[in-house]
Amino acid sequence: MNTFGKHYAVTVFGESHGTAIGCVIDGIPAGFALDRGRIDEELRRRRPGQSELSTTRKETDNFKIVSGLLGRVTTGAPLTAFCRNIDTRSSDYQTGLARPGHADFPAFVKYDGFNDARGGGMFSGRLTAPLVFAGAIAKQIIESRVGAVISAQPVNIGGVTDPDLFQKVILEAKAEGDSVGGVIECTVTGLPPGLGEPLYSSVESEIASIVFAVPAVKGIEFGDGFNIANRYGSEVNDGYDSKNGKISMTSNHNGGVLGGITNGADLVFRVAVKPTPTISKPQQTVNLVTGESIEHSFVGRHDPCIVPRAVPVIEAACAVALIQFIL
Fold this sequence. Notes:
Layout: E1 3-4, E2 9-14, E3 20-26, H1 36-46, E4 64-67, E5 69-70, E6 73-74, E7 79-84, H2 104-110, H3 128-146, E8 149-157, H4 166-175, E9 182-189, H5 203-211, E10 217-222, H6 233-236, E11 240-243, E12 246-249, E13 257-258, E14 261-262, E15 267-273, E16 283-286, E17 293-296, H7 307-326
Antiparallel strand pairs: 1-2, 2-3, 3-7, 4-7, 5-6, 8-9, 9-15, 10-15, 11-12, 13-14, 16-17
Helix pairs in contact: 1-3, 1-7, 3-7, 5-7
């Protein structure tokens, strides 16, 4: 399914080397004045081709809104936006070769070989651009409704936690024809307590669901995450305090969520992002058309590390999940 959400339904469409990519957003409140400059800034943060740390593919990501907006104000109709792909190089993709770490093989099986595998098709990180567009609008609505602010940052790249060394680690991998992954931490400040539903529509499950739709994400944890399993309850139970009639948390080991519902503390989660699958080192693969096993060095324009450009994507995914509860 290419649609996420019920109260703010986001449908993403397009393929990496297709004519265009875009989204349809249903559920935006009528009468909301959009700040287009903020939307474009979010897209700029994700846009490729801006430094030696990213792919050299250059896309403007200049989204055109074709419905749901009159002037700067939303009309209540579904908002549809798209941008054209202008810098594709499909000759880099040899037909039939399953790229290790990519969805080429399972997609070939599922769609009987009719899937567009150029650049990963609809499984490509290219499709995170319309998600960022939808998330940028969700961010504005969330801030206007409850004042909450969403921000993310890399906290680990290639096993290194010192931000001053992140660029060095990425460029070293790039020089070797390899890639590295990392971890992104996302924090939401200012959320009121009481948002979310128990069990199957919890804050955690909704965020996890959309975050795992971001290509290359392989794990998520909230609060202390997996480390909480190694502690005593007396160490990780978040206590309560009351001042002037307002209840607050004395610690935040649970990441701002209890019982699937926000407790007023900062919402904190981290996602694990795998290394970029396409690398120039020889890899073992199979020709899906002939069935032949071969060793092949793949070419193409890819980020040596996805993490830096994935930061605004994770923020956007978080916003699209949270706005479901706020609306």
